Amino acid sequence: MSNSVRYDDRSPRLFFIAAVVWAVVGMLVGVLIPAMLFLPALNLAPYLTFGRLRPLHTNAVIFAFCGNIIFGGTYHSMQRLLKARLFSDKLTAFHFWGWQLLIVAAAVALVTGTTQGKEYAELPWVLDIVIAVLWVTFAVNFFGTIATRREKHLYVAIWFYIATIVAVAILHIGNSMVVPYSLLGSYSAYAGVKDALMQWWYGHNAVAFFLTTPFLGLMYYYLPKAAERPVFSYRLSIMHFWSLVFVYIWAGPHHLHYSAVPEWASTLGMLFSLVLWMPSWGGMVNGFFTLRGAWHKVREDPILKFMIVAVTYYGMSTFEGPMMSIKSVNAVSHFTDWTIGHVHAGALGWNAFLSFGILYWAIPRLYKTQLYSVKAATFHFWVATIGLIGYQVSMWVAGITQWAMWRAFEPDGRLVYPDFIETVVRIVPMYWVRLLSGLLFFSGLLVFCWNLFKTIRSAPADYAVEPEVMAPPLVRENVAPGAVTPANTYDYALYSFQHAIRHGFHRMLESRTVTFTVLTALALAVGSLVEALPMFFNKSNVKEIASVTPYTPLEIVGRDIYVREGCYNCHSQLVRPFLYETERYGEYSKAGEYVYDHPFQWGSKRTGPDLHRVGGKYPSLWHVRHMQQPRSTTPGSVMPAYPHLLKDAYDTSLIGAKMRALRTVGVPY
How many other C-beta atoms lie within 10 A of the C-beta of residue 561? Predict the structure, then answer.
């Protein structure tokens, strides 16, 4: 084996540049859709409405921007950590171009209303298969590189990459079980309460294992590199990794407090969410203390500024999240804009800031040049920080205002604000603050793009020539004549045990990739099985209601239109057991009412009122006028018009296929 290796730096360059492009696209849509919420004229039905663009925004930021950062950072760092070139240039190229084409296809699908109607899992079943193929490609390339490595020890960043690959595969497959009725359309294999539990098992852990564990791996590599300091504590890294991987997977049901989900499931989610605070802060502490002795650099270096604020926001978000999982706090935050503020604090403060720091550090090195302007990077940091704080505070204020107004009663027992629109109008000033804060953050992004563009332009002509790096072959233990060998099973086992005691069991585990990966998968599987099995095999968790019957063909058509237009992004279909909700909307929702819902449509945010009990409340003409011009029926409404629903023909040729698909998933037609 040669004593040198040429790293593949072209692929990380491509992924990083793609990340910048998709950051602009995703955040531009992110600036537009908050304005659409209170300026309905900006909605251009049928394609450019909030209901269709909001999933486009979340998918672009999570899977396009953050996804490309993950892939680029993983491929860039693992080569240096493992002292090996990526396993296959062809697989890497297929992965890159496949992921970009997937993102384009996803954007087209979402804008045209092709969606499964499940948050963060909206893409049609065909694209779910494409995701699975590309993820397997990534996994083969990743583990193939580990197999050909020249460094026996697996650094902590690699642990987190392994957990990401395993967990995302489990989550994606588990939540994507559907029965197709056409090339793009399908129905979830799960119904109602079970679908909700599976979706938020996936949804919460998409945050955990796509927006947290891979970025922690990147933090463990790039923060020490930028600070030129070693990681603070190896032991803390071990505790952080295993406790996080085991605990995180349990926390999903805390999104379903006061819903039709059984009490034991949401309580279990809450308890593990509270426990999650400790391992999360283990990572934050390790990040902070890595900078010991380097704080003077933070004052001068914008890269470290971005990274330390990212670690700070990681700590803040992983404190706020467990706090919001407490039932009494969740009663305040759920369905309000507080949750929107929390999500963006994590996505922008943790993921985006760390990504900016990584790109500012890596791009000049990948192009063999210097960052064009440190002053511009510092300006970007302060503009983005101010914008982020303004965004977060405005959503806190809006969320608490919504909750306070929803629950306000007169002394005689009547609701102070019986009309939902009164609460919407009151928080419009906070929406203006959010819009301006978003524009401020986006302006910093444009400065960032300009700075990177000028940096790349200054690269020397030979920047793409891959340097040869000295990397000796993987060191094996020398075996002297007469020494213990694997041939003598008992003696070798004793020798390995003694070696492990001297050097640590985890150190030994890190050199055994298969064992490490299997143990990671087992740690992930425990919580998933404990929560899922009782729900799927104990019928007492979802009691049937005799009066609940399957949807008629016409009702299926109407429900599919509701999903297509993304109405679940603004409306809920879940009345919680609070007096102020039952007074406003009617009887609270029961699990048995959703047994034929594929998928469930409970929603997670109320920009408009709950719709679970709205059937039969208004005459048909009211609904026609409401879709044509919402303010004609609800003065002050911020809902956009949907005139295409009154004139566009609906394709009825698929109704038979839809009925057969629903029968396959258990609806008794």
Answer: 14
Q: Are strands 4-6 and 178-180 parallel, antiparallel or unpaired?
A: unpaired
Q: What is the DSSP string of 113-176?
A: T----STT--S-HHHHHHHHHHHHHHHHHHHHHHHT-S--S--HHHHHHHHHHHHHHHHHHHHT
pLDDT bucket at 493, cuts 50 / 70 / 90: low
Q: Which residues of 390-419 are buried (b: 16+ CB within 10 A; e: fewer)?
A: bbbebbbbbbbbbbebbbeeeeeeebebee
4-6 and 468-470 beta bridge pairing: antiparallel
The predicted structure's pLDDT at residue 477 = 46
Cα distances (Å, whole numbers) of residue 78 to 22, 74, 141, 240, 494:
23, 6, 11, 20, 33
C-alpha distances out from residue 458 to 16, 167, 228, 470, Å: 17, 40, 25, 28
In angstroms, the CA 580 to CA 273 distance is 27
The pLDDT of residue 505 is 77
On whether the CB atoms of residues 284 and 313 are closer than 8 A, the answer is no
For tokens 């009782």, name the residue: 534
The CA-CA-CA angle for residues 613, 617, 621, to 5°, reads 135
Q: What is the pLDDT of residues 325-367, one digit of tens each?
A: 999 999 999 999 999 999 999 999 999 999 999 999 999 999 9
Residues with Cβ within 8 Å of residue 595, at least 6 apart in sequence? 191, 192, 542, 544, 548
**Token pair of 473 as six digits:** 């072959």
Distances (CA, A) of 89 to 7, 64, 81, 273: 11, 21, 18, 41
pLDDT tens for each residue of 159-207: 999 999 999 999 999 999 999 999 999 999 999 999 999 999 999 988 8
* Per-residue pLDDT tens over the stretch 532-590: 778 777 777 788 898 999 999 999 999 999 999 999 999 999 999 999 999 999 999 99
Torsion 632-635-640-645 (CA) sign: negative
Considering only CA atoms, which of 248, 148, 260, 262 is closest in space to residue 207? 248
3-state secondary structure of 469: strand
Please write the tens of the pLDDT for every residue from 408-425.
Answer: 999 999 999 999 999 999
Its pTM stands at: 0.94
Q: For 615-667, how does the pLDDT look when each residue is reduced to its tens digit (9 = 90+)? A: 888 999 999 999 999 999 999 899 999 999 999 888 889 999 999 999 999 99
The DSSP string of 120-133 is T--S-HHHHHHHHH
Peptide bond into 599 cis (omega under 30): yes
pLDDT for position 503: 56
Report the amino acid identity of residue 430: M
Element (H, E) at 470: strand 468-470
Neighbours of 489 (CB within 10 A): 9
Supply the pLDDT for residue 1: 52
By CB atoms closer than 10 A (0-12, 13-18, 19+), residue 532 is: middle
